[in-house]
Amino acid sequence: MNTENNAAAVKKWNWGAFFMTWIWGLGNKTYIALLGLIPVVDLVMAFVLGARGSGWAWKNKKWESVEQFTRVQGLWTAFGLGLFAGYAIALVIVIVALVITFNNVFM
What we know:
Blueprint: H1 3-11, H2 15-27, H3 41-60, H4 66-105
Helix pairs in contact: 2-3, 2-4
C-alpha cells in the first residue's frame, strides 16, 4: 500500500465519526468513542473523533486497502449527514408547528 495515500486518508477529518460518535466507534472498533455516551463529554468527543477518528479507525480495525477504508468511511459520512439532515428538517417542522400553534392561541 502507498504510504502517502495511507497518511492522507488517516489524517482526513472524519464526518462520520463526528456525527455518529459512539455508534461509529463501535463499528470501527474505536471504543474510546463510547465516552460520547456521557452528557457534555459527548460534545467534546464529537470534535475529537472528527479530528482523530480516521487514524484510530485505521489502526484499530483490519482493512484490505486504503480504498476500502475510504469507501467505508464515506458511507459513515453519508449516513451521518443524512441523519443530521433528517433531524434538522424535523426540528424546523416542529418549530414551525409550534409558532403556528402559539400564534393561533394568542390571537
